[in-house]
Amino acid sequence: MDEIGQLLERYWPHIVLVVSILASLATAVHAAMTKQDVRAAIGWVAVVILSPLLGATFYLFAGINRVRRARVTQQRRLAQPGRESIDRLEVKHLGQAFDDHIKPLKRLGNEVNKNVVLRGNQIEMLVGGDQTYPAMLEAIATARTSIALQSYIFDHDGIGIRIAQALIDAQQRGVKVRVLIDSVGAKYSRPPITRMLQDAGIAVGRFLPTAIGLRLVYANMRSHRKLLVVDGDLALTGGMNIREGFMREFAGDDVAVDTHFKVSGPVARHLMESFAHDWEFTTGERLEGEAWFASIPTESVVQGVPIRVVLSGPDRAIGRNQSMLLGALSVARNHVRIQSPYFLPEPVLIGALVTAARRGVQVDIVIPANNNLKLVSAAMEAQLDLLLHGGVHVWRANGAFDHSKLMTVDDQWCYVGSSNVDPRSQRLNFELDIEVFDHELARALAKSIDNKINHAKRATLAELANRPFWVRLRNRFIWLASPLL
């Protein structure tokens, strides 16, 4: 042992050097062979070469995607009675109500998604917490068999406590209740709302907990999905977290804005399957039976809005959002409207936006003038010139901070839900969106976005150029970290 100690004492610098070289080589090879984005591969290889041991250690925790592909992002066909009959409600042809150039979007969605477009649905837009939270409370109060609630953030505050108590009351009258919250989002308030729910006997799951153990490797992956399904046939989904800052009763004139959607019909089945899949991965419990999956008399379903559920995540489902957005931009002929609080499109999406604008499509992007995330706002500004040079219109909306994530194309096609237009939503978050073919909703969204534009300030190249040099330099350095913001 003394000899070994002496050897270590004498040659430890050489041992460290060899270990560093081997760790760097192994990490660089892994990054080069597994990263699909060349920028990510180059970045990680540079990190591990410039800082061998530290870079390799950081890559071990933040660079390797360990999400269990078969269980998280691959949507399994749950063995539930009626699934086959629901899928028979697929919209085969959109019909004459939609222009021919819009119709290929349905085929694109079929190629990149597991879910088909279903007919026979109803959808209602809910603006802000003043409309959304009362609708949630009403749905919970009228639940007969089951309630499935999923949220990124569920704060322990005025509205959070109100919704939690409604869930507790529902369980006490015999309704089955399950609540799934992202482990990062659960920490936004103290004490967490999970304690109140669990003390009342409600089953609560935390998606990818990272506080202890090896699950620290999942710290950069989050479930950003927002979903409430009641009795398997009514759902609310969109961009709304559960926070009192979005309700005028609590926030007063500082109230923030968001947009949510109340959906009923066959598509509620696919939304419930999304929750059941995430719940089983998180807790091991499989939800099944008519308590969770309502029977729908498919023979009577004729009218209604065609809707598709789009699930995306950081593994097998990676790229779904981007494919949907690129497809929509490629077919647009007249007008594209996008509203997003965190707008950091990747180069391929910037190229698609600019190309659409240059071929004569009016492309309007609405972002907040006053963002709640200052670093994201700085990174957003750092790349606006790329859009403005290409003829894209970018508008900074004044007034209350708006957290809505909305897109419409030619007043016929809508894409709404939890996804932002940024690298995190495209590559790191588990997101839930819906694709809607509906003139009425598209016109309502267009009117809402246009109203924002009417009270917004248009960004210009001259304005960006007149920023002090240190501000532009700061923004560019923050922009370099945009994949992690």
Automatic annotation (TrEMBL):
<feature type="domain" description="PLD phosphodiesterase">
    <location>
        <begin position="398"/>
        <end position="425"/>
    </location>
</feature>
<protein>
    <recommendedName>
        <fullName>Cardiolipin synthase</fullName>
        <ecNumber>2.7.8.-</ecNumber>
    </recommendedName>
</protein>
<keyword id="KW-0812">Transmembrane</keyword>
<keyword id="KW-0472">Membrane</keyword>
<keyword id="KW-0677">Repeat</keyword>
<dbReference type="InterPro" id="IPR025202">
    <property type="entry name" value="PLD-like_dom"/>
</dbReference>
<keyword id="KW-1133">Transmembrane helix</keyword>
<dbReference type="InterPro" id="IPR022924">
    <property type="entry name" value="Cardiolipin_synthase"/>
</dbReference>
<dbReference type="InterPro" id="IPR001736">
    <property type="entry name" value="PLipase_D/transphosphatidylase"/>
</dbReference>
<dbReference type="Pfam" id="PF13091">
    <property type="entry name" value="PLDc_2"/>
</dbReference>
<feature type="transmembrane region" description="Helical">
    <location>
        <begin position="41"/>
        <end position="61"/>
    </location>
</feature>
<keyword id="KW-1003">Cell membrane</keyword>
<keyword id="KW-0808">Transferase</keyword>
<feature type="domain" description="PLD phosphodiesterase">
    <location>
        <begin position="219"/>
        <end position="246"/>
    </location>
</feature>
